Amino acid sequence: MRSALCAGILFLMARGAVAQDDVIGIPIGQTPPAVTLQNLNGDSVPLSQWIGKKPVIVEFWATWCPICAELLPRMEAAHNKYGARAEFLVVAVAVNENQNTVRRHLERQPMPFTFLWDGNGAAVRAFQAPSTSYVAVLDAKGRVVYTGVGADQDLDAALEKAVKRLGG
Predict the structure, then answer these.
(1) Distance CA 42, CA 99 (A)
(2) So what's the pLDDT on residue 22?
(3) How many Cα atoms occupy the beta-carbon half-sphere of 56 within 13 Å?
(4) Beta pairing, strands 114-118 & 87-93
(5) What is the distance between the alpha carbons of residues 12 and 155, in angstroms, rounded to a whole number?
(6) What strands, in cross-sheet order, belong to the sheet with 144-149?
(7) How far does the chain reach from its first CA to its final CA, in angstroms?
(8) Which of 141, 152, 1, 145 is nearest to 62 (CA)?
(9) Which one, of 101, 116, 110, 111, lies nearest residue 63 by Cα?
(10) Under 8 Å CB-to-CB from 25, ≥6 apart: which residues?
(11) pLDDT score of 19
(12) How far apart are CA 97 and CA 92, in angstroms?
């Protein structure tokens, strides 16, 4: 299944079906439905804990996703610039891995984001995430201002838009 996710999005990108300005996943202006995920210790965590307070960037991610690895430098650069003004959430999808594989991966390769586990696909459905490396940026009111997929997303511009709505 994981190869199908990556292959499908790569195919669409190569064919030009996913243009930079296309909305992918949850439509711009919508607020995602309430979902409860787990932290990597297995505790239930409502996504509303972060949404609607300040801008939030949500990446759908997997340890085995090469596009996610390519996106990582952009995520880290955005975190360095906006980390005090926005929440950075990474939703680990439960395709061909479990919480233990994610924890082991993060022990070897630490990242400065909050990691959540989507064991039953609730967040994938709520955000209409088409694949891993899918990113949604929400403003401080919890409305989607950006969606995208792939390694070359302009996260800086997306977060700048969300932060400006906050007033700086």
Answers:
(1) 8
(2) 66
(3) 22
(4) parallel
(5) 20
(6) 44-46, 36-38, 114-118, 87-93, 56-61, 134-138, 144-149
(7) 41
(8) 1
(9) 101
(10) 127, 128, 129, 130, 134, 136, 147, 149
(11) 45
(12) 9
- The answer to whether 98 and 64 have CB atoms below 8 angstroms apart is no
Residue 82: both structure tokens together: 């906006």
Please write the tens of the pLDDT for every residue from 116-161. 999 999 999 999 999 999 999 999 999 999 999 999 999 999 999 8
Residues of the chain with pLDDT under 50: 1-20, 168
| Distance from C-alpha of 76 to C-alpha of 166, rounded to nearest angstrom | 21
Tell me the sheet residues that pair with 136.
58, 147
Q: How does strand 56-61 pair with strand 44-46?
A: unpaired
For residue 109, the one-letter residue type is Q
* 3-class DSSP assignment, residue 14: helix
Q: Using CA atoms in the order 73, 166, 50, 57, what is the torsion angle rounded to 10 degrees?
A: -20
